[in-house]
Specification:
Blueprint lengths: L5 E5 L3 H6 L3 E6 L13 E5 L4 H6 L30 H18 L4 E4 L12 H10 L3 H17 L6 E4 L8 H6 L3 H4 L5 E5 L9 H14 L4 E6 L5 H12 L4 E5 L4 H12 L1
Parallel strand pairs: 1-2, 1-8, 2-3, 3-4, 4-5, 5-6, 6-7, 7-8
Helix pairs in contact: 9-10
The structure holds zinc ion.
Zinc ion binds next to helix 4.
Length: 271
């Protein structure tokens, strides 16, 4: 393993921020809960997933081709998805970014949940009107909307801009399913982060397939693999990190409490 492998964390513990870098800190999560930013950590904000706002403003929720709403009431959504075509939603997300940068003093930032809910979304009034005005087809409008949001976010972030990707490297999937034009976003995003979570990592062949897929898909653009750490056996987590580090430019471990375990995984990567 290369001595320079980046090892970082996604954490809820301020003492981890001092020990690990980069350390990402969730300022707002998909539930809509907020946490004050912490000095030294890179703030991350769930931009368009927000259960609280979806409840308060049902008209902001993304809508499917049959008029179905993108909320947890449907079996395949784990959170409620707001529509970026609503100016209120987009401006609120940009306000979150400004606020988190101001309060943390960080120059860098991570965009989370910048996405349409899945294929066919969104058919809300704002999207339909925006699409008519733009003259674009459905897919091009979605991609344009998200790319433009990332461009506007980029202008607020003087340091490194990180962007979370759904872990599907298959060509065309992120574009069709979520409206994310990975190649177009390379212009604005410095580092992509790909969470590939498992509660045990008892096997790693699938992790290796996905990591290799992203390495090829991103064509040399920097990216970090993010592993789930809390409750995962240390040996298994170390193995998963080593497998990932062979393909990614960095490895992050998310939500682990035990600083000693994190330090040992880091040492194993650098050993
Ligand atoms: Zn919409």
């Amino acid at each position: 393993m290369a001595g320079g492998t980046v090892f970082g964390v996604v954490t809820r513990y301020p003492d981890h921020v001092e020990q690990f870098g980069p350390a990402f800190w969730e300022v707002k999560d998909v539930g809509g809960a907020r946490r004050d930013p912490v000095t030294g950590a890179i703030p991350m904000v769930s931009c368009f997933a927000d259960n609280r706002l979806a409840k308060a403003h049902p008209e902001w929720v993304q809508m499917g081709p049959g008029g179905e709403r993108a909320t947890r009431d449907q079996p395949y959504f784990d959170w409620d998805c707001l529509c970026p075509s609503r100016p209120e939603v987009e401006e609120l997300a940009l306000d979150w970014i400004r606020g988190a940068l101001d309060q943390s003093g960080s120059e860098s930032f991570r965009l989370d949940d910048v996405t349409f809910a899945r294929e066919g979304y969104c058919r809300c009034e704002a999207c339909e009107a925006g699409r008519r005005e733009s003259g674009l087809d459905f897919e091009a409008y979605r991609i344009g909307k998200l790319t433009d949001f990332v461009r506007r976010s980029r202008a607020l972030v003087p340091g490194t801009l990180y962007f979370t990707l759904f872990p599907d490297p298959y060509p065309g999937h992120l574009e069709l399913r979520f409206g994310i034009d990975v190649d177009g976003l390379k212009r604005w995003v410095d580092v992509f982060v790909v969470p590939i979570y498992d509660l045990a990592y008892t096997t790693t062949y699938w992790l290796e397939v996905l990591a290799q897929g992203f390495r090829d898909r991103l064509g040399g653009h920097p990216w970090y693999l993010e592993l789930y750490g809390l409750g995962v056996d240390e040996g298994r987590l170390t193995k998963a990190a080593q497998v990932g580090a062979a393909y990614a430019d960095g490895v992050l471990v998310a939500y682990e409490k035990d600083g000693g375990k994190l330090r040992r995984v880091r040492e194993a990567l650098r050993g």
